[in-house]
Design goal:
Layout: H1 10-19, E1 23-27, H2 34-39, E2 42-46, H3 56-60, H4 68-76, E3 87-91, H5 95-107, E4 114-117, H6 125-146, H7 152-173, H8 183-191, H9 198-207, E5 219-224, H10 231-238, E6 242-248, H11 264-272, H12 285-299, E7 303-309, H13 313-328, E8 333-338, H14 346-359
Parallel strand pairs: 1-2, 1-3, 3-4, 5-6, 5-7, 7-8
Bound molecules: iron/sulfur cluster.
Length: about 350
């Protein structure tokens, strides 16, 4: 891929933030507060696999039907490549990640401390109170680890940055056709937020080449957890279609609202519960599908591809109803599951190709 954007590698970012005095926090998917970590001078670096890692040792600790995000990350965190990491945050996104946190806390002792963050599934006042308390507990644990005292002013400042970055993500994600980038370049940019300092991400956003995008064939809404391997986008383009919108956990499902709140912890809790409908927070079916139908219409998408990590339970719970809702609304729908392979298998490519062919 030749990208018109210069995005530093993870390695370069790690070297730089370390030079600047930050510690490195490895974060598992996917709802958490970057602002809280940065308020303690911890740079968050997200781990979505990584795809190139062999899951071998990870497999020993989990049932065979555990997704590869967890298996590979478990392996990766025990390798030499993870030695730069100072602490690990594992949000309770699903049972697999809860299991991973337990394995690291109770069985495999890593040199780094492992923090957890539990999410409420509902949206009652008691749920917000629960999450606010989770953030306070997490903050205290990080304070004990770093030896630093949290400045609420700094935390507000960091939350302000995140809110600005979210507004940029929102504007860019919902206007795919206005950026002269290939799908792969576009999503490489959106996903750079997984590891770039927030200011770098915002600077990059301002540099995106604007103008009518050269998008060929039907527009597709891409749903799922993470589009790995990224050559998925090249193949969709090669088969004659393009991705016009997404419902990806690593991208648009993390565009939070900006709550009006003066208490920093309440603000974090309100922000983190304001995400779009999402299987991992048990959004009611009707609410999620109404939202997706709106996204399909607003983006003029003509079909849905759910590209899923194999054995991802939260996504699978919604799948039959998701397919029914989209087909009833008249949109072709395909579900593809894949392990986090470095390249897409031939069988997957054939299925995507056939799906696109019927749209043309
Ligand atoms: S892919 Fe699914 S099951 Fe695996 S960690 Fe992510 S949400 Fe959990």
């Amino acid at each position: 891929m030749t990208t018109k954007l210069t995005i530093p590698t993870r390695k370069t970012v790690i070297e730089r933030v370390k030079r600047e005095g930050f510690q490195l926090g490895a974060v598992m998917p996917f709802h958490y507060s970057r602002a809280l970590l940065r308020a303690f001078d911890i740079h968050p670096m997200e781990i979505w696999g990584p795809p190139h890692v062999e899951p071998m040792d990870g497999r020993q600790h989990f049932p065979e039907y555990t997704c590869q995000v967890v298996q590979k990350a478990t392996r990766f965190l025990q390798t030499e490549q993870a030695h730069d990491i100072d602490c690990i945050l594992i949000p309770h996104t699903c049972d697999s990640l809860q299991g991973m946190a337990s394995v690291f806390i109770d069985f495999i002792k890593l040199p780094q401390p492992v923090f957890t963050l539990y999410h409420p599934r509902g949206r009652r006042p008691s749920d917000l109170e629960f999450l606010e308390n989770e953030f306070r507990v997490l903050s205290q644990k990080i304070a004990d680890f770093t030896g630093k005292t949290l400045s609420e002013e700094r935390l507000h400042h960091e939350i302000d940055f995140e809110e600005r970055a979210d507004r940029l993500m929102e504007r860019i994600s919902t206007n795919r056709g206005e950026y002269q980038l290939t799908d792969r370049e576009f999503y490489t940019f959106l996903r750079s937020r997984e590891f770039l300092p927030v200011q770098d991400f915002m600077n990059l956003a301002e540099e995106l080449p604007t103008g009518k995008a050269d998008l060929k064939g039907p527009g597709i809404l891409l749903s799922g957890i993470v589009p790995e391997p990224m050559d998925l986008f090249d193949h969709i383009n090669e088969f004659g279609a393009h991705v016009i919108a997404d419902d990806l956990a690593c991208c648009s499902r993390r565009i939070y609202k900006a709550p009006d709140e003066t208490d920093a912890f309440k603000r974090l809790a309100k922000q983190l519960t304001s995400m779009p409908p999402d299987p991992t927070i048990s959004t009611p079916y009707a609410e999620r599908f109404d939202y997706l139908i709106d996204r399909m219409k607003q983006s003029s998408s003509q079909a849905v591809i759910v590209f899923d990590v194999k054995f991802c339970e939260p996504e699978l719970f919604y799948l039959p109803m998701f397919e029914d809702a989209m087909r009833e609304a008249g949109w072709p729908f395909i579900y593809i599951e894949n392990e986090l392979t470095p390249e897409l298998p031939e069988q997957v490519l054939n299925r995507i190709n056939s799906f696109v062919e019927v749209l043309l």
